[in-house]
């Protein structure tokens, strides 16, 4: 299972339980994999956040994606908080704004705004960030 793609310990746990392995055995196996560093939830979460930023997602979207992939919510919040401090999600919002501005060039101002705000909301960007980007790129 680890050969196909990196997995969070939570996702691996769910997968093994679904295959019928006992809870005690699954916990023991996961602890052993963590001990020998075959599973590293933090490194996995950091990698997933970079992937999310590449898809122009915001903090909220990245946290939801990490939780969906089996990363502990607390760790997801922590890693996303660090990424936010480094400006990763801000950069993603600006890239999204530039993309929407290109695609909607020549359309009515309200249409451009609506499409940008819809895309930004779906991707989990904060309203404050979207407001700054929209004011500069779609004015």
Automatic annotation (TrEMBL):
Cross-referenced InterPro entries: RecX_HTH_1st (IPR053926), RecX_HTH_2nd (IPR053924), Regulatory_RecX (IPR003783), WH-like_DNA-bd_sf (IPR036388)
Alphabetical keyword list: Cytoplasm
Pfam family for this entry, one: RecX_HTH2
GO cellular component: cytoplasm
Domain RecX second three-helical stretches: 40-79
RecX first three-helical domain segment(s): 1-33
First-listed, main subcellular location of the protein, grouped into a coarse class: cytoplasm
Family label: Belongs to the RecX family.
Name of the molecule in the record: Regulatory protein RecX
Species annotation: Bifidobacterium longum subsp. infantis
Taxonomy of the source species: Bacteria, Bacillati, Actinomycetota, Actinomycetes, Bifidobacteriales
């Amino acid at each position: 299972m680890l050969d196909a793609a990196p997995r969070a310990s939570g996702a691996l746990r769910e997968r093994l339980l679904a295959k019928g392995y006992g809870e005690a055995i699954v916990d023991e196996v996961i602890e052993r994999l963590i001990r020998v560093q075959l599973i590293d939830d933090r490194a996995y979460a950091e990698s997933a956040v970079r992937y999310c930023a590449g898809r122009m997602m915001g903090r909220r979207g990245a946290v939801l994606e990490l939780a969906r992939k089996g990363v502990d919510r607390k760790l997801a919040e922590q890693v996303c908080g660090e990424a936010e401090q480094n400006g990763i999600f801000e950069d993603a919002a600006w890239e999204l704004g530039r993309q929407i501005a290109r695609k909607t060039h020549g359309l009515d101002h309200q249409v451009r705004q609506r499409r940008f705000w819809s895309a930004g909301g779906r991707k989990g960007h904060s309203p404050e960030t979207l407001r700054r980007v929209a004011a500069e790129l779609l004015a």
